[in-house]
Amino acid sequence: MGHFIAEHEKVHSFLLGLHVQPGNWITSETVTDLTAALAAKSSGVPAAAGRAVGIVAGSVRLQAYALSFIDAFISSPGPVSPPFSWSRRCADFR
Question: pLDDT, tens digit, for every residue of 11-62?
């Protein structure tokens, strides 16, 4: 199970990283906002920008880790995945 999670974390990290690119307006705005928030508690703007990039990278890593656990639970056979009849009943309530 540990190997499965590690490998899927790499895949999800790569796929999420495709959308976190320099020049992307969401990425730029996030890093700029975090830099502004961290500037007062940093030794300067470059240090704050480095910390902001580290926070964004940590967020991507955390999301990839969570997605790999979701993959593990969805693909594992047995009592972890709900039986078909249960998932069918849940779909009826939507």
Answer: 988 899 888 888 889 999 999 999 999 999 999 999 999 999 999 999 999 9
3-state helix, strand, coil in the chain (%, to 5): 80, 0, 20
Residues of the domain holding 56: 2-18+25-92
Q: What is the pTM of this model?
A: 0.70
**Count of structural domains, the chain:** 1
CA distance 42 to 53: 14
Please report, for residues 17, 52, 60, 63, 82, the alpha-carbon distance to residue 34 in angstroms, rounded to integers and kept in the order given. Answer: 18, 5, 15, 18, 40
